[in-house]
Specification:
Layout lengths: L2 E2 L2 H10 L4 E6 L4 H17 L4 E6 L5 H5 L7 E6 L2 E5 L6 H6 L5
Parallel strand pairs: 1-3, 2-3
Antiparallel strand pairs: 2-4, 4-5
Length: 104
């Protein structure tokens, strides 16, 4: 299961992570968000020891999505060394997402 993160804990968790962090920004009722979450759960089984995967509900959290200027959902953001690196494209399938991750 993908861990839920909120605005209050976000910076601390991302900045102290020793591995890259992948965050899905989602909201209830978003079919694409649910589909992506299932792919991320599969991905977590495969790379969870090398990438921290989190999810953030944008209806309950506003600060981080606003800072990233997220305008459409789902959105998938990659952080490395505590800093935003880029948004990940290919939001459909686990393998497409996996190809874009910095896996050592």
């Amino acid at each position: 299961m993908i861990e839920e993160i909120d605005d209050r804990r976000f910076d601390r968790v991302v900045e102290t992570s020793t591995k890259p962090v992948l965050v899905e920004f989602w909201q209830p009722g978003c079919g694409g968000c649910r589909a992506l979450l299932k792919e991320l759960e599969r991905l977590q089984e495969d790379v969870g020891d090398r990438v921290l995967i989190l999810k953030m509900n944008v209806q309950e959290n506003h600060q981080i999505p606003a800072e990233l200027e997220i305008s459409s959902l789902p959105a998938l953001a990659l952080y490395k060394n505590g800093r935003f690196e880029r948004f990940i494209g290919g939001l459909g399938k686990m393998e497409e997402i996996r190809k874009q991750l910095p896996l050592a």
